[in-house]
């Protein structure tokens, strides 16, 4: 047994010399000291078969060898660790004298997108489904389904772009084209209440000025349920505006005409910049026109698949561009689509 111990001791030392990293060290440890089949462990197990007096002597000897090997093993581990640390500091060294890289320009979201996303968040938290819809649309969904008679002058108020030689199709002049589409999609045969909000781009053949664009964004929403009234209409809009501006808002209704609501209103909000005193943003009126709204016309409910004797609804729609103008105190709507980076970089 003495010879075996000596042999293992020498073998271990020889192999330890060749170890260059932690992986090699771990292999070596396994080979000699693994509990199940390590070479040194096997010798220790063999002690059990010896007679008591020989066991004592060999046990002492084996412990001395073990201590020796453990010491060597530990020194090797420290040596490898020191080497790894030296490599690491070399690999990750920072040259503090190197000149700074030029600052990278980062892109960001357009102010109208920011306003839209905020509105979507608030509406979704109030239980509204958020939907998207087609911009090239049939005249039916933009006007016909919304109770616009064929030759009604209200169609002209929207200054619609029609497809050449096919007046059944147009670029939608408002996102209200989604009202009947969404009622039909979610009403489950006219038996289910629906809350939906739908932002999107709209097009009008407008004479451009500081508050009118030919392409702009609207945000609209409706609720259909059993007993909807004007109190619900005002409460829902106020809650949404509160979420958008992070404070209570004061609103007022004026009569307004839209063929798809009855009664219909224009809603103003007390100017948040001057709190009604009059300033540049509200053109010294103290109030800012925010949106069109009203209770859904029975013909529209019918077109959406509901029985108007049983169901009722509210709807409101606003210009996102104007909403962003108000939020950021921007006086000319044309900045938004100008693509001028000096303007956009401010957001
Ligand atoms: C409508 O478009 C109705 N669909 C809104 C509505 C929905 C009423 C549901 C009732 C119920 P109006 O044409 O007023 O309404 O436009 C709505 C908003 O879009 C306006 O308040 C305004 O903020 C914005 N808007 C209208 N025309 C322009 C334009 N040329 N450029 C920028 N924003 C505009």
Automatic annotation (TrEMBL):
Cofactor binding note from Swiss-Prot or TrEMBL: Binds 2 magnesium ions per tetramer.
Cofactor: Mg(2+)
Tree of life domain: Bacteria
GO CC terms, sorted: cytoplasm
Pfam families: Phe_tRNA-synt_N (PF02912), tRNA-synt_2d (PF01409)
Enzyme Commission (EC) number: 6.1.1.20
All residue ranges annotated as the Aminoacyl-transfer RNA synthetases class-II family profile domain in the record: 124-346
Amino acids binding Mg(2+): 262
GO BP, sorted A to Z: phenylalanyl-tRNA aminoacylation
Keywords attached to this entry: Aminoacyl-tRNA synthetase, ATP-binding, Cytoplasm, Ligase, Magnesium, Metal-binding, Nucleotide-binding, Protein biosynthesis
Keyword ATP-binding part of the UniProt annotation: yes
Entry's transmembrane regions: none
Compartments, record wording: Cytoplasm
Catalytic activity: tRNA(Phe) + L-phenylalanine + ATP = L-phenylalanyl-tRNA(Phe) + AMP + diphosphate + H(+)
UniProt similarity note: Belongs to the class-II aminoacyl-tRNA synthetase family. Phe-tRNA synthetase alpha subunit type 1 subfamily.
Name of the protein this chain belongs to: Phenylalanine--tRNA ligase alpha subunit
Biological source species: Candidatus Magasanikbacteria bacterium CG11_big_fil_rev_8_21_14_0_20_39_34
């Amino acid at each position: 047994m003495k010879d075996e111990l000596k042999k293992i001791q020498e073998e271990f030392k020889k192999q330890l010399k060749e170890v260059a990293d932690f992986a090699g060290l771990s292999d070596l440890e396994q080979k000699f000291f693994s509990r199940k089949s390590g070479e040194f462990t096997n010798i220790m197990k063999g002690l059990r078969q010896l007679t008591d007096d020989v066991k004592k002597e060999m046990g002492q000897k084996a412990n001395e060898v073990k201590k020796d090997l453990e010491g060597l093993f530990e020194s090797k581990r420290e040596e490898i660790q020191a080497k790894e640390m030296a490599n690491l500091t070399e690999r990750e060294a920072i040259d503090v004298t190197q000149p700074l890289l030029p600052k990278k320009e980062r892109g960001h979201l357009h102010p109208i997108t920011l306003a839209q996303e905020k509105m979507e968040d608030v509406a979704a938290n109030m239980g509204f489904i958020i939907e998207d819809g087609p911009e090239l649309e049939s005249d039916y969904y933009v006007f016909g389904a919304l109770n616009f008679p064929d030759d009604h002058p209200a169609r002209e108020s929207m200054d619609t772009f029609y497809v050449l030689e096919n007046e059944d199709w147009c670029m939608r002049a408002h996102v209200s084209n989604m009202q009947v589409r969404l009622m039909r999609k979610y009403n489950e045969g006219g038996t289910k209440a629906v809350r939906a909000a739908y932002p999107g781009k709209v097009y009008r053949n407008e004479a451009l000025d500081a508050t009118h664009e030919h392409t702009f964004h609207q945000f609209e929403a409706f609720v259909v349920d059993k007993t909807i009234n004007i109190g619900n209409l005002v409460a829902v809009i106020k809650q949404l505006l509160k979420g958008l501006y992070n404070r209570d808002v004061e609103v007022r209704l004026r009569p307004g005409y839209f063929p798809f609501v009855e009664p219909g209103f224009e809603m103003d909000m007390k100017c948040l910049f001057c709190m009604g005193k009059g300033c540049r943003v509200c053109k010294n009126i103290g109030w800012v026109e925010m949106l069109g709204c009203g209770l859904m016309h029975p013909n529209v409910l019918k077109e959406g698949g509901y029985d108007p004797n049983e169901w009722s609804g509210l709807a409101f729609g606003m210009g996102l561009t104007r909403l962003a103008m108000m939020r950021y105190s921007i006086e000319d709507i044309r900045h938004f689509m100008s693509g001028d980076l000096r303007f956009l970089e401010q957001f």
